[in-house]
Amino acid sequence: MLNMAAGLARLGDLxxxxxxxxxxxxxxxxxxxxxxxxxxxxxxxxxxxxxxLDFTTDAQPDEILAIVTPVSSTQWDIGRAFGTIGARVQxxxxxxxxxxxxxxxxxxxxxxxxxxxxxxxxxxxxDFTVNAMALRxxxxxxxxxxxxxxxxxxxxxxxxxxxxxxxxDDPLRMLRAARFAAQLGFDVEEGTxxxxxxxxxxxxxxxxxxVQSEIVRMMQTTDPVRGIRVLVDTGLSDEFLPEIAAMKLExxxxxxxxxxxxxxxxxxxxAIDLERQRHPDAEPDVALRIAALLHDIGKxxxxxxxxxxAVSFYHHDVVGSRMAKKRLQKLKFDTATIQTVGxxxxxxxxxxxxxxxxxxxxxxxxxxxxxxxxxxxxxILTRADVTTRNQRKARxxxxxxxxxxxxxxxxxxxxxxxxxxxxxxxxxxxxxxGITPGPEVGKAYKFLLELRLxxxxxxxxxxxxxxxxxxxxxx
Length: 475
What we know:
Elements: H1 4-15, H2 18-29, E1 34-37, H3 39-46, E2 53-57, H4 61-68, E3 74-76, E4 84-89, E5 92-98, E6 103-104, E7 111-112, H5 119-124, E8 134-137, E9 141-143, H6 148-154, E10 156-157, H7 163-169, H8 172-184, E11 187-188, H9 190-199, H10 208-219, H11 224-233, H12 242-246, H13 260-278, H14 286-294, H15 299-302, E12 304-305, E13 311-312, H16 316-330, H17 335-347, H18 351-356, H19 361-371, H20 375-384, H21 391-414, H22 426-433, H23 439-455, H24 460-474
Parallel strand pairs: 2-5, 10-11
Antiparallel strand pairs: 1-2, 1-8, 3-4, 4-5, 6-7, 8-9, 12-13
Helix pairs in contact: 1-3, 7-9, 8-10, 8-11, 13-14, 13-20, 14-17, 16-17, 19-21
């Protein structure tokens, strides 16, 4: 439960933050109001780490720029038309925005900018009550016109005004509800949830880039599973990622879970846990987390009822990879993320052949070669994909993966298994065979690569012998 006494003390600490204190004095000396607003205030009350500092003021953009210039090393006014001036103060990036009273046209989702005349009016136009609090500085006074503190105590997300109006102004706020549920561990208030269910179709007017940004931010939180449940339960995910909810209808092939959807959420959570164990200081791996969530989206499309009541999902890895890449392209994800997610989904079943019987060194080399730069992510995803409640089977699979990782480490000590190339390059192939660049060089390169994968390093002399023998057979 929120300790208000401790929270208010932390607000005092926030007011004394060097950046806050510097700006508070500058605006006070200019006869203007200033308040820290939104996330920093919420997080201070919750005892969470405060990151980006946002401010609001009664000063107009030109005046904001004049006030901050003497106390900042850099300024930028790219958001001037919307009342926002950015600056770097004592090494930290901040944004200061004039009180706003804007609304949206309901078609393009572009704001019609109108500057407001009060802090309270500015706060009521924000997304949720827990983000609609401000700390006036330098006097250190909490301003909470919509009951944000009460909602912090209750652990709920509620819009400051009628949710139909709030979401009508900006439909992306519906997606933010899921993100903040994941970030804060809060529940979406009943009326707010009902409005999302009713208005979810209006998300279509929001650009794919903005939707994608919210997905990424949600996947970076400590509990994205919670946010995903909000998206699916309200039907909002159907508007931009319908493949997730589609998995709820399918029975998992191993009959370990009620449906593929629940299995996928378990895999996502286990992948996050493994990610933190193996790389505790790394940033959240969004590509890995998306791959974990979507690794089985090919199952509904490949589902087949077999004799005796069995269910199969043949080639759901390949089908799912194509589906995921197509969906991420529509959401305007970057090429690197799309390729990573696609490769992980396509390869996520490969390991289970190893669990059935030890591979040759050749098979291990090919596993490493096919995974490429995604090998560590594939390790995590494959381990996370074990959700059986049969402890004996779980131990067997864990032991098998320990073994394959040990085999890969041993091969790395003996040879450059992560960058497998033939013993001869293209120029050497041409010299040995006495040929010029063309398709034959490519065929010879492929032949030597297969030898390298099958037998390990041969050395140039042996490779030349094998190449010449192969060439004579081709002739």
